[in-house]
Amino acid sequence: MPNMPNMTSLSTSQIPDEHQRISRPNIDELERPIDNPAIKTLLYPQESLPPIRHLPVETLSWIFILSVFSRDVDEWKKCRRHPMVFMISHVCRQWRTISLQCPELWSNLFPDSGVGTWSISYTRALLERSKQFPLTIVIKTREHRHHYSRYYELLVLALKHAERARVLHLDDHYGEDVAAKIVKRLSVISAPHLESFRFGLSRSLDIKHPLFQGSGVQKLRHLGLRYHGLESLPPLPSQLMTLDLDSPRTRITASEMLSVLSKLPYLEIISLCNCLLPESPPIDHPIRFNHLTSVSIADAVSNCVVMMENLIHTHSIKVSIKRLDRGVIPDWHQVNCLFETIGTPLNFQGDPGYLPLRTLSVKLTIPDRCVQGWVEVQHNPPRADVSPYLDIGLPAIPAKYTFHRRSNSWILRSCKLLQLRDVQVLHVSSEPFLPPESWLFAFEGAIQVHRLEIDQPGALGGFLKAVLTENEECGPDKLFPALKMMFIRQVDFDRKYRISDGVSSTLDVALLDFLKQRDSEGSRLEFLWMETCHFLPDEVFLVLLEHVDNAFWEGHDVRELGRGFYPEPIQRIPDSDEDYDSDQDWEDGWGEGLEGDE
Q1: What is the DSSP letter of 482?
Q2: Most CB atoms within 10 A, among 248, 267, 379, 513?
Q3: CA atoms of 559 and 163, how far apart (whole Å)
Q4: What is the mean pLDDT of residues 445-455?
Q5: Could you tell me how many helices (H) and strands (E) the chain has, helices first?
Q6: Ramachandran sector of residue 95 (left: φ over 0; alpha: ψ -120 to 50; beta: rest)
Q7: Which of 235, 318, 231 shows the shortest CA–CA distance to 275?
Q8: Is the pLDDT of residue 461 over 60?
Q9: Looking at residue 391, what is its pLDDT?
Q10: Torsion angle of alpha carbons 13, 16, 22, 24, nearest 10°?
């Protein structure tokens, strides 16, 4: 064979590489007209953003300020050895120059002996570098008692500049001597920049002269007082937006409180805890608020009712009402500069133009066996157009307390405040037995309820007894004639109650009787949902679909599950022969109405 110098022998592994070498330029040439415009489009936004070192000084300053004042930064500051403002100012020469030229960046004072032995120097540096910019001074709970002398020195240093304060929060428990010195200092200074003031030093401290007598508090927008009343301050500006009063030494009547509120037309948040004299007489002094967004009242039953009947709002608001038992005051939690909004839209008055209450939720629970009860209104977060619902809770039952008749009266009276004819969704939760009289008295006007949600066996037992008892007082025609959907949660169906004619019956049998009754009357349920429930026999499942269109158990369609799907029975301690709605429950006041209010 003749020699062929131009021929090159290729191995099998080299052939694909050679093909790629030859074809790649040709393919790139074909794709370039399409790729180039697309690449330019993708690169344009990236190229339009300059590196952070090229950003304007004003932009960098705002980024630094937002970083220092961020809530996330404040929550995690204990994990860092140095404050964020010092970390920013030591990144590079440019950042240090910018940070030192921004007084607002250094205006956040949190005297805390826990930052180290250099904390006094740190506070002095903040005061110097903030120049004359209004300060945010928040003195939190003293956690390092072994550094008390340093903590006190920091406190004195910060209060020397209290006249510059835009935010001044003194939420701590000091000794009487220190508290008296703080009051003396605040009594003689002016507060021309003060916008947010929160003050709570000592329950026994008597403030004889108003604070800030120098020039008043004309710029004040957010006010929170604990242990002290409004007499400890100069006259409040009408532009006040937040008023939070907690357990003042001197309490006033509901009428006097309404008179004070009438002079503050721009209020957005009202929070009153143990501020009113007990058993305030009924009054008629309604006040209309155009900006109100949140109301929280913790007081005696009559005071709560009087206040809510006289606070008229022109739009939906947040509402939280807590019933205080004598001598029991909730813990007072520190809040941030803007304060915490409490509680949601509610229509107490039913006047034209009000948002009608569509969803009512009543919770009768025993949370952590602590004395507390509440009326809360909340929005459904995923949908802004969903109308609010109301939560009404009874006080709990710790070992040293028992239910009184007043407890049941309170929830019934609260329900009576509402325009229940507009309620379409009702949620009731009660572990103790809720008598049929309570159901009928509180909800007889809720004729538009089409969705009923029941949690806990006590609520379900009381409801079934109310609708299955055939007499003039308790009849099926008085409760929820428009009912189409029913949700049942956290119920053991083997519980026994005296439901019909005084005969003990388990909840599963009573539920089936209820469904049969609705079906025979032509008001058959369209939907039944059971979740976190136990002890429903197979034979009941097979009968369910004869009297309800759709039934679901733990998220599964009963029609598809069929016989034998029910899980193994849960082992439980055998119950006594005594029914759950025993005489003890009735003696505690659950069966009483408004006539037992004393």
Answers
A1: T
A2: 267
A3: 73
A4: 83
A5: 17, 22
A6: alpha
A7: 231
A8: yes
A9: 38
A10: -130
What type of residue sits at position 525?
Answer: L
Q: What is the H or E stretch that residue 510 is in? A: helix 507-520
Report the range of poorest mean pLDDT among 41-50, 318-327, 397-406, 531-540: 397-406
Task: Provide the sign of the torsion angle of the four alpha carbons 96, 102, 105, 110, taken in this order.
Answer: positive
Q: Give the model's pLDDT for residue 70.
A: 66
Angle separating helix axes 538-547 and 507-520, nearest 10 degrees: 20
Instruction: Copy the structure tokens of residue 403.
Output: 């239910």
Provide CB contacts within 8 A for 69, sequence distance 6+: 108
Q: Choose among 486, 489, 490: nearest CA to 512.
A: 486
Q: Which residues fall within 8 angstroms of residue 130, CB to CB, at 6 or more apart? A: 103, 104, 106, 107
Whether 525 has a pLDDT exceeding 90, the answer reads yes
Q: CA triplet 331, 333, 338: central angle to 5 degrees?
A: 145
Most confident of the ranges 407-416, 466-475, 551-560, 573-582: 551-560
The answer to whether residues 272 and 247 touch, using CB atoms and an 8 Å cutoff, is: no
Of 13-27, 61-75, 506-520, give the range with the top mean pLDDT. Answer: 506-520
Distances (CA, A) of 177 to 189, 191, 198, 210, 379: 19, 23, 20, 18, 46
Q: What is the 3-state secondary structure (H, E, C) of 323-360?
A: ECCCCCCCCCCCCCCCCCCCCCCCCCCCCCCCCCCCEE
Q: What is the DSSP string of 1-18?
A: ----TT-----TTTHHHH
Buried b (16+ CB within 10 A) or exposed e, 19-47: eeeeeeeeeeeeeeeeeeeeeeeeeeeee
Count CA atoms within 13 Å of residue 215 on its CB side: 11
AA identity, residue 416: K
Rounded to a whole number of angstroms, the distance between the first and last alpha carbons of the chain is 124
pTM, to two decimals: 0.52
- For 118, half-sphere exposure in the C-beta direction (CA atoms, 13 angstrom radius) is 6
Q: Residue 454 corresponds to which tokens in the numbers above? A: 């029941």
pLDDT of residue 136 exceeding 80, the answer is yes
